[in-house]
Amino acid sequence: MKLRIVVPLGHSRFNQIALEECQRIASSGTEISLVNLEEGPDSIESEYEEALAVPGFLKRAREAEAQGCDAVISDCFGDPGVRPAREALAIPVIGPAETSMLLASALAQRFSVITVLPSVVPMIEELAHHAGVLGKLASSRAVNIPVLCLEDKDNLKAALYEEGLLAIRNDGAHAVILGCTGMMGVARELQEKFAACGLAIPVIDPIAAAIRMAETLVSLGLTQSRLTYRTPKGIGSAVTQAARA
Amino acid sequence: MKLRIVVPLGHSRFNQIALEECQRIASSGTEISLVNLEEGPDSIESEYEEALAVPGFLKRAREAEAQGCDAVISDCFGDPGVRPAREALAIPVIGPAETSMLLASALAQRFSVITVLPSVVPMIEELAHHAGVLGKLASSRAVNIPVLCLEDKDNLKAALYEEGLLAIRNDGAHAVILGCTGMMGVARELQEKFAACGLAIPVIDPIAAAIRMAETLVSLGLTQSRLTYRTPKGIGSAVTQAARA
Amino acid sequence: MKLRIVVPLGHSRFNQIALEECQRIASSGTEISLVNLEEGPDSIESEYEEALAVPGFLKRAREAEAQGCDAVISDCFGDPGVRPAREALAIPVIGPAETSMLLASALAQRFSVITVLPSVVPMIEELAHHAGVLGKLASSRAVNIPVLCLEDKDNLKAALYEEGLLAIRNDGAHAVILGCTGMMGVARELQEKFAACGLAIPVIDPIAAAIRMAETLVSLGLTQSRLTYRTPKGIGSAVTQAARA
Amino acid sequence: MKLRIVVPLGHSRFNQIALEECQRIASSGTEISLVNLEEGPDSIESEYEEALAVPGFLKRAREAEAQGCDAVISDCFGDPGVRPAREALAIPVIGPAETSMLLASALAQRFSVITVLPSVVPMIEELAHHAGVLGKLASSRAVNIPVLCLEDKDNLKAALYEEGLLAIRNDGAHAVILGCTGMMGVARELQEKFAACGLAIPVIDPIAAAIRMAETLVSLGLTQSRLTYRTPKGIGSAVTQAARA
Amino acid sequence: MKLRIVVPLGHSRFNQIALEECQRIASSGTEISLVNLEEGPDSIESEYEEALAVPGFLKRAREAEAQGCDAVISDCFGDPGVRPAREALAIPVIGPAETSMLLASALAQRFSVITVLPSVVPMIEELAHHAGVLGKLASSRAVNIPVLCLEDKDNLKAALYEEGLLAIRNDGAHAVILGCTGMMGVARELQEKFAACGLAIPVIDPIAAAIRMAETLVSLGLTQSRLTYRTPKGIGSAVTQAARA
Amino acid sequence: MKLRIVVPLGHSRFNQIALEECQRIASSGTEISLVNLEEGPDSIESEYEEALAVPGFLKRAREAEAQGCDAVISDCFGDPGVRPAREALAIPVIGPAETSMLLASALAQRFSVITVLPSVVPMIEELAHHAGVLGKLASSRAVNIPVLCLEDKDNLKAALYEEGLLAIRNDGAHAVILGCTGMMGVARELQEKFAACGLAIPVIDPIAAAIRMAETLVSLGLTQSRLTYRTPKGIGSAVTQAARA
After folding, report:
1. Confidence (pLDDT) at F236
2. Dihedral angle sign, alpha carbons of residues B59, B64, B67, B71
3. Which pLDDT does position A238 carry in this prediction?
4. C-alpha to C-alpha distance for B196 and C140, rounded to whole angstroms
5. pLDDT at E218 over 70
6. What is the pLDDT of residue F241?
7. How many degrees, rounded to 5, is the angle at CA A171 between CA A169 and CA A176?
8. Which residues of chain D from 51 to 90 reach within 8 Å of chain E, CB to CB?
9. Distances from the Cα of F109 to the Cαs of A96, A215, E142, F173, in angstroms?
10. In this complex, which chains have at least 3 CB pairs below 8 Å with chain E?
């Protein structure tokens, strides 16, 4: 199975670390490849930046299908381009936000998302509505660290722990989702830290959830409904061709 | 008051007729200008085409603010680019779908949207959720006429009447919204036709609703909330500058 | 265009100041007239007082239509009499609460209403449900100043600012609606005060919103749906007559 | 226990038959009295007529409390005056619509209301929202018989059966509420008729439900919450006095 | 009328006190009998314990019907076995949680449940959803006293008062439901204590509400809908037989 | 990874076929074992039968954990015992209904469930509410074939196709879930049949979805939240022990 991760940014700074993390998560039979955009924003912390990233993402998504990939993942918690790409592609297109929210819904009465900046909070509510589980979203909180400063892992972990405690105690969260795919490799440790103080809750890494969802869909022969995601005019033939393959 | 209408398409075919219609609707003191995109889709009937239109729309929206316009309207029922543009601009950015759904909510228990093609239906539900009035959406129906074929007005009017009757009788609609800004100049006649057979319901033209909403916001000194629509990094100064002007 | 404002109270104490404020807000071509009830409560701060005001309001509303007015506004945030008057009249009947809530929904993710007394709070939730936007109501708060004491503007402004800050910080409001039509002439100043401390949110004056909505409906040839608001028996002819005019 | 039924109409035509029916339903220890209004509509089939009935109802409700009644019932499915009377009275005020909808919610997944005329349908949705069970309302249907023509019981029963079958088969109703307090004495027979054809569903008579609810509240020492229904200014002393008694 | 109370526990420790309390509440014509299970948990404070109690409850419920009882009540706030028993029985089966939530919905804008332990809180949300009034549930709070320690009434009353105040002040509750049928005989006193400090709200005893609901259903000839609660295979004849009686 | 499938029935008739199907679905590194109950119903088509199955399921679930399994699946679409078992176990407990509804939510705007008999329909709505996606449930339909007659695959496939078409055309379903784990091995063929007539929608096999979800949770180190599913008294030590292992 070949999964293509598309980082919807105009630079390759995160490619190596993201690729290694994704390979670590994937099942043994899964082959991961990862690309960034030719042109795009440095990071996505607003609907404005997201909008600028989407056309480049769609190009990469169509390339992935043409190159024989089995599924495409948008490597950003805003799920940029996922819905339009589902229209244009026959293979599954997966969003980390949608997937991790659905996973959290299976594990807990209510969940909170802890994201980077307050500017992202309204987008998260829209994503929860898209996924159909807005009623399970206890709160969205921000650590107030821009995406480009997430590399200081100790600072990030401390801030996630602090906001996570507030989400649990004040907002009634029973699970926590890390609200940025740049928050890689910290979920397990955070989960253990909560458990150590009597709060045995799941902490969900969105890109890990997305990779597993991609594997599940491909192995079960499932893809997005064509009644929800109708093929746009002009690229119907490509879709049909891919479907035939 | 200066309103800028941005047609989010890559051609100027509809410019003249749309401009005339908008000028007919606007109040006497309102100056309307209208532009299309440098580059963009021929029409928008999918999220895919919408995504391709948004970057060009954002450029036009920022130009409008820089040129001293008081408000910007996205001339497509999908409200393409409205939310990201609200982040980037200080002046109001108005979407015809959102506005007409809110207007319908003031006039009727439930409303239906009659749009061009079934591919647009899921987008309409998302727009109703965005506007906060999903509970008032009785149904979304399609006349099955592509945007580029809307010029045959007789065909359009007959199809709108037929689907409107189904919306009223089967779906419980008490108001009808025309779900494409290309359906110009037919709302009043359709409203009269329904009234003539005992169904005195409002029929709402989305671009007319949007122009009146723009005038209302400008005259009352209101614009989008900066807490919902935070300024994206890098363009803050432009926003501040515009706000100061 | 002739708009009739009906103050649903049994005295004329607020007439002059309300008329001047409404004339200040209206467009140049709009002619405003204002009346109070022959008999009615001193102020409306409960459903009980509202109920006593409605029959008198309905009489005034029917008079307005008979005298050739184009629309009627109920000048109280409880929207007293608006729904029954819509049944009896062919011209639009507008409620300040409904209108300002719909306007707020277009500008912000969530809004709060700041009203006079806690006794009004359950009525506001019902009004938000009527308008279809209960899901956007972050909170209802009260300044604890009776309607008849709103004349001390400094006291009012200070209390609105304080409750507004709580609405923003504790309840997640991204916009504020002034929840009493007696809170005239303070919205703009309050909006500037919030903006000055970094909270650039819309502050909505309900009577201003209602006047603009009335102008919009009249100019677009729209009125309440007869399928939602059926003509009561006995006054059908009046309605038909007005509709014909 | 003394229950006062207030018929919110300006004539006494239904008094005798309603009193007998209510006495038949009440428990042995319950003393029923019944009054109509001094002045009011002939029947209530619109929000307009309802509004005209409410001031007279409030007068009768306050009289009932002053005369030592233990609870007041508004004898109309629109629950006219119930909410404002709850503010003004210390004793319980009961609405047949609210009560029968809550009873239906205990017995079935979803219920339908079958009322007199289509003009009443939007009011029923508001009542279901007030009661908190709008999500359980499968549909509202009308037999198209005005209140003043309900005396032809055979015609009424046939129409209720026909609409009831449609509610069950098309709308998914698992229980039926008779949506007019004038539909007295037919619930049991209708329930048996449905059961005879394999549809063993509850059919709820709203005035019967209201009388039993009144008895329940009085016997358990419960009344409306003063935090939801605050005492209006000026009649506080009466309320306190009644509460003291 | 013969009501059977089934205590879904494997011991008879609470039988005498519960029987006396239920007899005190019931109407004069009602004959109360009470049984516990042959085998079952000591108390129910989790879905696990509830699941273990249900088969024994179903046996007792069927016995009650066979012995000619007119209705069965499950004497635990989790309403254990109520829904499956409704399938198997023709006589009404009543749950204290469902009933008290519906009663609270008639009296207040929003209510809170104060239960024994935090482990019960997610079950309460599910019960509110079942009843159809989840939107009226302001909060669920726990006094942190296990069921088997409820006998210290002074401790219980103090804790209920404290959590009740928090429910009113922080969560917006306008009514309080005691969330355990073991909290007998304290509702009235708690209601008076709140009223004494200006918070005149209803405090609902769930078993009292259930007994009155049982009497109401039996006297009105109502029972659960067979379309919601279909007869399980194998026991159809028993149900039919009971229905015939 | 060791997964234990528990068939919640009192006979082993389906064991061999179910085991083979589950082994076919599972990943290469997954070891599947399957048991039925010592005592239980023949099939589950009501809440009554479900209630009788749960105590036996809980015993089997605890055995599985004690025997070192990594996750437990309840092999019935009613998800019997899943919630109480989550309280008692530290390893993940998975329900096919919950999992397939969440998967469908990722793939389509709305989904329908096609189950065996109408008696199961109300249970499916409750399951969708539990999962948090009731708003995405377009409808629940039944093929009217009892569980014990599902072996005639041709009859089953024809009935599923017919009801599936109705779900798509009348109810607006964009995906279909097979609502019984006994409907094994037909999803792929049904999906192809729909696609062949232009309805390219996902058809989800619930047991396949559950197995993949179990693998995902185990591989990501996730399990149910202890804040939603608190450990019942008396079995805490077992849970702690398992957690330590």
Report:
1. 59
2. negative
3. 45
4. 43
5. yes
6. 44
7. 85
8. none
9. 18, 21, 38, 8
10. D, F
The two three-digit tokens of residue A229, written as one number:
């995601």
F235 three-class SS = coil
With an 8 Å Cβ cutoff, are E51 and F55 in contact?
Answer: yes
Which position has the token pair 């047609």?
B7
The helix/strand/coil state of F217 is helix
Search chain F and give the residue with CA nearest A226: F200
**Residue entry with tokens 């290309």:** B182
Alpha-carbon distances, residue F110 vs A68, A127, A224, B238, F199 (angstroms): 29, 16, 12, 42, 14
Return the number of other C-beta atoms located less than 10 Å from residue A240's C-beta. 12
Chain A, window 174-233: residues with a beta carbon less than 8 angstroms from a chain B beta carbon: 228-233
Is B10 part of the contact surface with chain A (CB cutoff 8 Å)?
A: no
**Chain E residues closer than 8 Å to D201 by CB:** 225-227
Q: Give the tokens for residue F123.
A: 């249970």
How many C-beta atoms lie closer than 10 Å to residue B31's C-beta?
12
The pLDDT tens digits for A66-78 are: 999 999 999 999 9
CA-nearest residue to B44 within chain A is: A232
- Provide long-range contacts, Cβ within 8 A and 24+ apart, for E66-72: E66/E238, E66/E242, E67/E4, E68/E2, E68/E245, E69/E2, E69/E3, E69/E4, E69/E33, E70/E1, E70/E2, E70/E3, E70/E214, E70/E218, E71/E1, E71/E3, E71/E4, E71/E214, E71/E217, E71/E218, E72/E3, E72/E4, E72/E6
Give F193 to chain E, closest Cα distance, Å: 33
The answer to whether C232 contacts D45, with C-beta atoms less than 8 Å apart, is yes
Choose the closest CB to D225 out of E175, E223, E227.
Answer: E175
> A118: which DSSP letter?
G
Residue C217 vs residues B109, C60, D13, F177, F227: alpha-carbon distances, Å: 17, 20, 43, 46, 52
Tens digit of pLDDT for each residue in B52-108?
Answer: 999 999 999 999 999 999 999 999 999 999 999 999 999 999 999 999 999 999 999
Nearest to A225 among F107, F217, F224 (CB): F107
Mean pLDDT across B183-210: 96
Pairing of strands E2-7, D203-204: unpaired
Residue with tokens 């920022």: B62
E49 and F119: CB-CB below 8 Å? no
Query: Does residue A239 have a pLDDT over 50?
Result: no
DSSP code for F229:
S
Q: How far is CA B91 from the centre of its chain?
A: 17
pLDDT band of C151, cuts 50, 70, 90:
confident
Give A79-95 pLDDT, tens digit per residue. Answer: 999 999 999 999 999 99
Tokens 């076929």 identify what position?
Answer: F17
